[in-house]
Structures are given as structure tokens and as C-alpha cells.
Amino acid sequence: MTWILANLGLIGDLMLVHLRLSLIPVVVSILVAVPLGRLAHRVGWLRGGVLSVVGLLYTIPSLALITLLPPLLGTPVLSDVNVLVALGLYGVALLTRSVADAFDAVDADVVRSAMAVGYTPLRRFWTVELPLAVPVIVAGTRVVAVSTVSLVTVGALVGSRNLGSLFTDGLQRGIVPEIVAGIVATVVLALVLDLVIAAVGRALTPWARVSGTSGAARRASRRRAHRAEVPGTAAEDAVTGGGAA
Amino acid sequence: MTAVSTRRRLMRAGAAAVALATAVTLTACGTSDSLSGGGESTASSSGAITIGSQDYYSNEIIAEIYAQALEDSGQTVERSFRIGQRDVYMEALTSGEIQLIPDYTGNLLQFYDADTELRSSEEVAAALPDALPDGISALEAAPAQDADSYNVSAEFSSANGITSLTDLADYDGTLTVGGNAELESRPYGPDGLKELYGVDVDFAAIGDSGGPLTKQAILDDDIQLGDIYSADPDLAGGDFVTLDDPENLLLAQNVVPVVDDAVADRVTDVLAPVNAALTTDELIALNAASVNDQKDAATIATDWLTSKGLLG
Amino acid sequence: MSVFLEGIAWLFSPDRLSGPNPLPERLAEHLGYTLLALVIAAVIAVPLGYLIGHTGRGRDLAVGLSGAARALPSLGLLFVLTLLVGIGDAPVAATIVFVVLGIPPILAGAYAGFESVDRRVVDAARSVGMTPLQVALRVEAPLGLPLLIAGVRSAALQIVSTAVLAAYVNLGGLGIYLQRGIQLRSYDEMIGGAIVVVLLAFAIDGFFALLQRLCTPAGVRVAGGAAQTTRGRRHRRPATPRGAAQ
After folding, report:
1. What is the CATH code of the structural domain delimited by C2-232?
2. What is the H or E stretch that residue B52 is in?
3. Which of A212, B50, C82, C227 has its CA 20 to 30 Å from the CA of residue B202?
4. Which ipTM value was assigned to this complex?
5. B20 interface with A at CB cutoff 8 Å
6. Tens of pLDDT, residues C48-70
7. Are residues A174 and B211, on separate chains, in Cβ contact within 8 Å?
């Protein structure tokens, strides 16, 4: 405890740095995955290719990816950029699939109704399909955020300074509370980010509550939508706390 | 309007506020330049001096000592500590992101001349000026060393009469040496032990840089020899015996300030007395304050500079 | 790009079979840790997941705990456990870390498998007189098997990625090349080691993809409806996220 009390400032600083290192890849992956996932949803022949590539990408172990990036990017070996790019790629890999699923799950009748009342494709996308896809996209984003926060710590092994530095320093100095503080701070950061994204998701989809849709009903409808590929749903729920949060 | 729906609206407003806060954070991130390693102060005759440190607690203490001594002399100092390893901070030094960092003579020389055969403090210090890139200089080194050293448990030492690396050749049992994974390929690793002392050793990769895992492994007899930094406070506790190295297998590692030439004039005279006072025993005491008393670097530095009469 | 060629050259150098870190040995260690942890995680998570899936109870708790477990940084967990048990028992510490990593996806795969079974099928099984145990083992378990394997596949990928860290506590594995390469600035070793890790992950992924296909009950495969969708999407990875894989 001595160490923790004497180093609250350090822990706070590292949490901020860690938050920044986590937010950048999460935001980038949203910006890349939404158009990419939408494309996979719209263009049938692209779907298999895009989703296979991102699936394969996601299989690459992170420390290996971080060390493979410098020769590809021309970055120094020990640079935050490698960590950010690697985590951004994982985020894109995970989220592209969620986005494609999210658009798949939008009720076709609703889309047709929008067409029937004369919405242009662009307006239909922004005002009908995207908003209805938001819940599933948000669920995917929460998964990305939690795993990103946790993965950032690995960067400490390749010269990135973040909460993971408490692990390497604590190991060297033999201070167990330092490592434990790092673990707790990482988990807290991940869970707070998770809750914030969930709250943003709710703020973006007020109708989900106004119409009285309960968490259970939402969960059930999502399960229905995913019947064909339940691993996605199960995992989504497992990670994000499903409709419970 | 029911109470429930009012509450929902409030929650929605709260969520929106959180979203806004997130957006603000992101905007702030966009303008931050710390991706490139922090400040970009150009070295001038009057601007702040940016001091870096390795990602190693003991190095941070020394950097903090330099920083406080310079501040005491009226200079403006910026701290960019825990930058990482030599690749990163030498890059930062040559590009002007930092102007000063404490380093260790042997490893610094080896960084630029991997095959160097030099070993003693004097030889290594003399070879540094030629090895360093243009525009970077090493100031006068401190007597303090924080070098790799081979250690056995006191029990093992007395039971087998081993106090020097020379004695190991007569030892009958299996010897396993523990250290960071890269030690296995260093010139002073297993190959060096074989070449200079005729000792065959097995290798155990323990990635805590001679920290508690390595030390415990020695005490538990999981390994017999451990590579531990010589300024580690635990080495003085009586549980370990540091083996003599009469053939100079291990490189000298004196603490040395490495500076951007543009600020050399402003720091040399301030750091000279500080470095002169920094002996290995003093460094061990500083490290003990960090590891045993768990004090932070700034406190340790102030206490030490004050006790040496180097402040004010 | 020449660094990649050097990495590949490093990989195929005859030194990989001799020297201090022979590749087959390190590969075997890496696979060994992965398999051991996977088996332990499965032994814990499969019965638990089946119980949750069959009874529908405890699901929210499992979901919550799994979520929290995924946020746990394996690196910190490995370091603190190793400090507590000592380097001599590092295998215990590492195995605990890998098992903790493997449980959530297997658990999710197990209960999702049960939940995916059409309720009408379960009712039919009951109506022909099957006991709850028979329903679970003869109906729900076989029908849920592909999803369980999807979970195991995801767990295996997480563990194989994270086993890279074992090298930091004297356990070898393929991570030793990355660690040495980074510290010695020998990039051929670093890249070569990274390539092996990636190939191993691809191979494991491919193995489980095949297994998943083989374990889809024949009846489900030939039937229409849901099975067709399954087949149509076979080429896609299961989305069970890896969470905090290292």
C-alpha cells in the first residue's frame, strides 16, 4: 500500500496516457470498420473476401504483429506507433464483422418502407439503416474497447509507456502492489470505457427505450437475428455483459 | 410525464455529456505531440534543458538528481523520463527531443561498437568520444558502476569455496546461469564464461533484469549463478556473493551523463561535483531507498543532494 | 522489406536445429503450454457452460465475470503470480494465466451451443420420454457442438498468442525469439520468431475450422434452413472475440 499511496500521481498520469493509447485505435477502427462493414453488407461478392481477410488479421498474435510492423511501416522498433497500428488493425478486424452483421439485422421491411416513402439511398442510410444498426455496432465497439485497453499493456515490452510499465517496473523492483495497482487500473479503465460507450449507445438510440423494448426483448431479438451465427452473439454478450448493462 | 421517463431523460443528458467529454478528450489527443516522444525544444543557450531517462528505476533517480542540480543552478529543466531503451533515447538525443540523459559507459560503447574488446572503466571511457555520433558527448563519468555481475548464494559460495569466476572451473555439478534472454548471446554470457574461465553453463532466461525472480532462483538453487546489476541493494545484504572477475569478462559500466553538445557548456560544471560524489555505494543506497523504502525518484534525489551539500 | 527476407533466412538456417534455442523444442513448448491450458480450461468451462445452457440459470453472472476476466491484462497477471510463487513454479503461474484466458470463450461457446438448439427440438426430445440428462447429452450437446468448438477455437488462439509471454519467466516457447530479438536488436531473429508465431496461430485456426465442420451433425448438415446458412458462412471466422489475447 505504501507504494500505491506514494504513487497515486504516477498511476493517474499513466491512466491518462493509457486512455489515449486505447482511444486512438478504437476511434480509428470505428471510422474504418463502418464503411468497410457496410461495403461487405452491400456488395455480396466482396463480403466473403473482406470478412476472411479481417478474420485472418485477427488471428495474428499481438506481440508478433507489433514486432512485424516496423519493417512494413518504416517506424522505429520501439515506437508507440507500432502499438497503435496493431491495435487499430485488431479493432478493424473485430468491428468490420459486427458492422456487417448490424446492417444485415436491420429489418428489410423497414428499409423497403423508407424506399416507398421516397427516401434517397443516402438519406435512407443516415436516417434509417445506420441508426437501426447502432446497437449492434455499439456492442462490437465495447468488445474492441475492452480488449484494446487490456492489450495496450503488452506495449510495455516494446518500449511503450503505459499502465503496463507498472508491470515491468514492479517486476524489476519486486514491488507486488505496483503490479496489482497496474492490473486494477487497467481493468477499471476498461470497464469505465465500456460503460461510457454503452451510455453513448443508449443516448444515440432513444427509441429503444421509448418504445418500451426491454433488455430481455432486445437480447432475444438479437439472438434471433444471429441464429445463423450464434458464436457472434454469445461472445458479444459474454464480453459486453449483453443486455444486462 | 412520469418520474421514470424524467429519469430517463436525465440519464440521456448525462450520457450525452459523457459523449461530449470523450470527444473533447479525443480532440486533445489529436493535438498532442507526445507520439513523437514529447517536447521538441531546440537546444539553445538559454531555453529549457530536456532531460531523459531510461525505463529503469535506478536511472530515473540519477536523471532526477541531474535535473534538481541543474534547477538549483538556475537552469530551466524539462523532464522526459522513462523514455525506454537505448534505441529510443539515443534517437531522441540526436534529434534534439532531449538534451541530456544518464547512461552507462560499457553498454553505451557496445551500442555503437558491438564487438568491442575493451573492458576497464578507463579504456571504455577513453573510447566513447570516438564511438558517439557527432553532436553528442559523454561528460566525465561518475565512479559509480551499475554493471552486470555474476552472483551466487552465500551458502553455495561457502559450501564450495567459490568466490571468483576462476573457482567455477573446479566445480563438479551442473551450473545454470540465469539472466535476461539476451544474455545468452552477449559476449560476457555463457560463451564468455567458457572462453575466459573454461566453465560450461546451462542458461535460464529470466526476464526481470536481475530482479527478485533471479535472486529468488539463486536462493532456491534453481540456478546457481545470476546476472544481477552490481548496484542492486540486495547484493549487500549478505545472502549473495558477487564473484570476482580477474580476467575482465564483464564490461565496466560507469554512470555517465550523455549530452547534446549545444548544452554541454551549461551542464558540465554543474554535474561535475554531483558525479564526483556518486560512488557505487551511494548508488546502492539510492536504489535501496527505491526498492526497499518504495520512495519516488524526486524524494530520493532531493534527500541525497541535500545530504551531500549539493543543493543551494 | 529485406528484413523479412532476413527473417525467413533466419528461419531456414541450419542453426535453428542446434544452438541454444532449437526451434522444434521451443515450438513444442509453445504448443505444450497451449494444449495443457486449453484442456484445463475446457474441463472447467464445458460442464459449467452446459449447466448454464441447460438450466438457463447463472447466465448473467457468467457473462459479467467473463467480461471482467477479458479486461484482465495477462502480462500483469503473469508477473504478479510468478513473483508470488517464485520462478521455480513459474509453470503453475503461467498455466493459471492461460486458463483464465481460455475459460470465457469456451464457457460462452458451451452455453451458446445449448441456447442455439431449437426449443421445439428439445420439446420433441422430452415428449418421446428422454430424461433431462438425456436431453442434455444426446440432443443439446451434439447440436451445440459446432458452437462449442468455435469457443474452443477462440480460446486456443488467445492462449497461443499469450504463450509468447512465457519466455519472460524462463518457460521458453516461441516468445524467446521475440524477446531476444528486441533486446539484442537482431531483427532477423525477431521477425523470424514472429513469423513462426503467426504461422502457428493460422495452423491452429485452420485445424479448429476443419474440426468445426466435421463436428456439425450430419443430419443438420444435410437438412435445409439453418444448416444451409451454416454452410454458406463456413468460410467465416467465428466472431467469438479474443478479448485480451496477447
Report:
1. 1.10.3720.10
2. strand B49-54
3. C82
4. 0.83
5. no
6. 999 999 888 888 888 888 888 88
7. yes
